[in-house]
Specification:
- By secondary structure, this protein is mainly β.
- It contains two helices and 58 strands.
- It is elongated, with a radius of gyration of 32 Å.
């Protein structure tokens, strides 16, 4: 048998559910609590820091609530929830609840998780309740008018102050208009005693931030009819219907209602009436219908370079104009594709593409849509094809981060979140893959902003606000500083303890959050100014006394040390079977024995390599940066450029290999090389 060695250049292919001989080099069976990074490789995710408990019994209080994120500026951002006719918001930096004036017992806020849409713009958070039917309200001023044939028949304005006249022009109703004397001139007006406009209580509301930083919940100032009548200046097509989506485009506020798309006047977001009844203006509202042989109910809209992509369950449309500026005269809607799209989970933008979700009976399909020119059909790619059946059909939310080419999916009944990340340079695909995170509780909400991740998780009856960072692999400077907190530790619920005491021969470290069953509590020694840092961490027991809830370490008095507390998270990578590869050829019929695998680790702490031969006990090998006699006393126990050899001595399909780590430090898998014995005897290869 010939000796053979082959390299796995990286692990940036992510998860694949294809058979192992069909996987692309660099793909694996499963990744839990990992993160794909084109610079550092496959790394263990950063831990989530605890910010706040969101009230007593909050899981019950906000069950099926609609969560949202609002950033006002670089230093002020909030996570909020709408539930039980109330809206609440918490500062993500401090965890402190923000007072919102006039937000309690609002009928418009009555609904569940899928009944609302929240869109923010500058100092406003606009809230849409999709279950409310838009109604009209009020009447226009005046009670009667006099009709004249044309404008030359009008009497003197000075002697008819407050009088209304109708200019009939021809016998057709669509060229009629109305004027009113202000005592000096005749000015265009609305027909007296007809519907003035919309009942603001049935239209989207807003939370407005004033210059003092205070928030107020209020109705939006929708403008009523000021000219024309019900023929020349009709109500928008959403009247008497429900609004299914809102968006901003071309400096207009847009609504979707059934098969119609309606846009306000530009720079006048709450005005859906025309400027003049006898002269059409480019600033007039736009109200168009999506004509199709199929039933159409629009559910989402995303502005793109070519116009606005409109989504219904079975068909997609483009709202556009040849000039690029949407006006009543030039705006056109045309069908561009016929893909099935989930009507609850709205598509999201991802840089130059749009990610949409389609659910099957057993799993969730994720599709990338790239719009082309105005006269070209979009390009669709099923980015979840390699992980068919990996993402469950219970997913109820999706979010994206264009800066990091990241898409995340989750559902409120599960602690697992699924991610897709890609990186391309020109036409070269450097990285493209799926992975998952196991969160410390059911994920009620998750969103990203720049490189920061915000999430709300459920632990029993408690909801907790947590934050973390993307792309923050520790630097050599952070490692040498000896500070665990600065080096972005890899455990969850990271928090400073309330206090520490030595009682009954154990160090009790009092925690600011509740004990969570099913998770492993850990205390990690941090470096205070002028102290010597050991990198010590200890799995703890838990308890409660008259002081509060605590993590306990039995033995000597450690209460004077500086601690961080939290819960362990486990990083796991299930490796596929290894085969001899020659270009695109994968040899599955030869006899191959794997002698050893050499893993190249980037900046890493300790990790484990678990080998489970068929019908034999599991064997674990520890790869650690803490080499005997060489450990540096004043630095985080993380080293760079580690080569660890895992002895195997098994047939290539006779064992399972898992890489794992549950210590509080980062792990970076960069590449691997395997060595073995290979024989192709008794086979003829063409």
């Amino acid at each position: 048998m010939a000796s053979i060695t082959q390299q796995i250049p990286n692990f940036l292919g992510g998860v694949s559910t294809q058979p192992d001989d069909q996987k692309v080099l660099g793909e694996v069976k499963e990744i839990v609590n990992g993160y794909l990074d084109p610079t550092f490789g496959l790394v263990k995710r950063n831990g989530f820091a605890w910010k706040a408990n969101l009230g007593a019994n909050s899981a019950s209080t906000y069950a099926s609530g609609h969560w949202f994120f609002f950033r006002f500026d670089s230093s002020e951002a909030y996570v909020g929830v709408i539930k039980s006719q109330t809206v609440k918001m918490w500062n993500v930096a401090t965890g402190v609840e923000k007072t919102i004036a006039n937000q309690s017992s609002q009928a418009y806020l009555n609904g569940g998780i899928n009944d609302f849409q929240v869109v923010s713009r500058l100092d406003q958070i606009i809230i849409l309740n999709k279950t409310v039917t838009v109604a009209t309200a009020g009447t226009t001023p005046g009670s009667s008018f006099t009709t004249v044939a044309n404008v030359s028949d009008l009497p003197a304005a000075a002697s008819n102050t407050g009088a209304y006249y109708k200019i009939a022009n021809t016998g057709a109703a669509d060229d009629d208009y109305y004027v009113k004397s202000n005592g000096t001139i005749w000015e265009e007006a609305a027909r007296p005693n007809i519907t003035l406009g919309y009942d603001a209580s049935t239209l989207p509301h807003r939370i407005r931030r004033d210059s003092s930083g205070n928030f107020t919940f209020e109705v939006c100032p929708f403008i009523g009819r000021t000219v024309g009548d019900l023929t020349t200046n009709p109500n928008a097509s959403f009247t008497g219907k429900k609004i299914s989506h809102l968006f901003f485009s071309n400096n207009r506020l847009g609504f979707l209602s059934d098969e119609n798309v309606i846009l306000s006047q530009p720079n006048d977001f709450f005005n859906f009436f025309v400027i003049s009844a006898f002269v059409q203006s480019d600033a007039d509202p736009i109200d168009l219908s999506c004509v199709s042989l199929r039933p159409v109910k629009l559910t989402a809209a995303i502005p793109v370079t070519q116009g606005v992509v409109l989504f219904s369950r079975q068909q997609q449309f483009m709202l556009f104009s040849d000039t690029g500026v949407l006006t009543p005269a030039l705006a056109v809607v045309k069908s561009i594709s016929n893909y099935e799209v989930d009507d609850v989970i709205a598509p999201v933008e991802l840089g130059t593409s749009i990610i949409l979700v389609n659910k099957t009976a057993d799993y969730c399909r994720t599709i990338s849509m790239i719009t082309q020119g105005q006269n070209a059909s979009p390009v669709f790619v099923d980015i979840g094809k390699s992980v068919t059946q990996y993402i469950p059909n219970t997913i109820d939310a999706i979010f994206s981060n264009s800066q990091n080419s990241l898409v995340g999916l989750y559902d409120q009944s599960s602690s697992r979140a699924y991610f897709y990340r890609s990186y391309e340079e020109g036409e070269n695909i450097i990285m493209r893959g799926w992975y998952s995170w196991e969160m410390p509780g059911n994920v009620q909400f998750m969103q990203t902003d720049n490189d920061e991740v915000f999430t709300v998780t459920q632990q029993g009856t408690q909801l907790t606000l947590l934050t973390s960072q993307l792309n923050t692999i520790p630097t050599s400077t952070q490692v040498s500083s000896g500070s665990i907190k600065d080096s972005n530790p890899s455990f969850d619920f990271i928090a400073d303890p309330l206090s520490a005491r030595f009682i009954n021969n154990e160090t009790r470290i009092y925690i600011p959050f509740e004990v969570i069953s099913g998770l492993t509590p850990v205390a990690v020694q941090d470096a205070a100014s002028g102290s010597t840092f050991s990198g010590f961490f200890q799995t703890c027991t838990t308890g409660t006394d008259s002081v509060g809830t605590y993590f306990a370490i039995a033995g000597k008095d450690l209460s004077t040390l500086d601690w961080l507390v939290g819960y362990k998270l486990e990083f796991k990578v299930d490796m596929p079977y290894l085969f001899r590869r020659s270009g695109e050829l994968v040899d599955t019929s030869a006899y191959l024995t794997i002698n050893r695998i050499k893993f190249s680790l980037g900046l890493s702490g300790q990790c484990n390599f678990k080998i489970t031969p068929n019908r034999q006990p599991q064997i674990t090998f520890d790869a650690t940066s803490m080499t005997s006699g060489q450990y540096e006393f004043d630095k985080v126990p993380i080293e760079d450029r580690i080569i660890f050899t895992v002895p195997v001595m098994q047939r290539n399909t006779n064992f399972e290999l898992q890489v794992s780590s549950d210590n509080p430090y980062v792990v970076s898998l960069t590449s691997a090389m395997w060595e073995g014995k290979y024989s192709d005897k008794h086979y003829t290869r063409l």
